[in-house]
Specification:
By secondary structure, the protein is of the alpha/beta class. It has three domains: 200 residues, 3-Layer(bba) Sandwich (FAD/NAD(P)-binding domain), CATH 3.50.50.60; 111 residues, 3-Layer(bba) Sandwich (FAD/NAD(P)-binding domain), CATH 3.50.50; 105 residues, Enolase-like, domain 1. Helices cover 31% and strands 24% of the residues. It has twelve helices and 22 strands. Strands 1, 2, 3, 4, 5, 6 and 17 form a seven-stranded mixed sheet that branches. Strand 18 and strand 19 form a beta hairpin. Helix 1 runs parallel beside helix 8 and helix 3 runs antiparallel to helix 4. The radius of gyration is 24 Å and the shape is globular.
Amino acid sequence: MAQYDFDLFVIGVGSGGVRAARMAANYGARVASAEDRYMGGTCVNVGCVPKKLFVIASHYSEDYHHARGYGWGEAEPAFDWDMLRENKDREIGRLNGIYRGLLDGAGVTHFDGRARIAGPHAVTVNGETLTTEKILVATGGWPVMPDVPGIEHAISSNEAFFLPELPKRALVVGGGYIAVEFAGIFNGLGVDAHLAYRGPLFLRGFDGDVREFVADELRKKGISLHFDTSIVGIERAESGVLTARLADGGEIETDLILYATGRAPAVHDIGLENVDVRQRENGAIIVDDYFQTSEPSVFALGDVTDRVQLTPVAIAEAMAFASTWFRDQRVQMDYDDIATAVFCQPNIGTVGLTEEEARDEFGRVDVYRSTFTPLKHTLTGSDEKTLMKLIVEPTSDKVVGIHMVGPEAGEIVQGMAVAVKAGATKAQFDATVAIHPTSAEEFVTMREPVG
């Protein structure tokens, strides 16, 4: 490999790219990386981290209200959007520095600039051509904006993190988790929030009970849901007011329109035309079980491959990649039973098969479901409910799916995911002594299947 400047050149330093670069360097490789936008990628800058901070901020409005049931006064503190945005920016800046420090600490040579593939073993960055044995593309994804007249008046989730001021009214367009989360964020911060989705029910791919339950809970919180609704145009008045024109002839007047209608692999202008890399129709880079493309020296992982778009998945893929190609220990990524959360309000936590998927795979399944009012709300007067659901394959008695909607669902299901991954049975759940009083105990106290 001495004939090349580097053993590995990583294009994109999001969560996956940084981990791959660090680990390969730790295994003795000469590694370089390049990034022209965000140190730390989408998750750190315009994704998971700032979004969760905004979710936390937006939930305080409910917490202040609920405190009255516990003897606290009537005070309604004023919300300061500028302070939240600036504090968020400060934290993201700190994380940017940590990511740069991780690369420096591992001995990675980092370039601030746009890297382009010039050939199977060559990369150009900042006007310089560098040679490398292997190239790893980890450029992630980018929001897709539809071809709708007036779309220039709308924003994507990227811009939502840097709004100069909070709107009084907001329309979120989309049916995925990003759309649902932002509708909750706006609503919690005092914005008149609407969500429009062209299908009959959002969160496609999640368990059916979860989707319906979340819709009911969001309506209780005052979010206006518009299903089977397509926007055919956007108009902006001189006053700045936006009007979304609907396919059925209706209109929604608002101050901000956020489109969260999907993300596409970020493959534009990175030089893929200079190598023999196969891609899918949406641009996703096709890789084998070890992240190798049809060009033997070029690899890809994370959202740019459009398989499972989750930060922890990209990190796990990076670990497998580095171990396989720089430690001589072939590791294949396991995509089964990946737990995930949606930070809508209340949260969703899920791992394993949905009821629909389980019935398709096994035919007959046992379903255990519980809906209840959390202990906290027995004094707050809130009508918020929690949903918990277990999917069991009856022949083996294995729990093949766990779903929850409720406070801290992600925290609870993270632990439950270990049990599902380990192949725990319903009998083992039943034999587990509950922690009382908690919401989580419901997962080990459901005894009778409902279907």
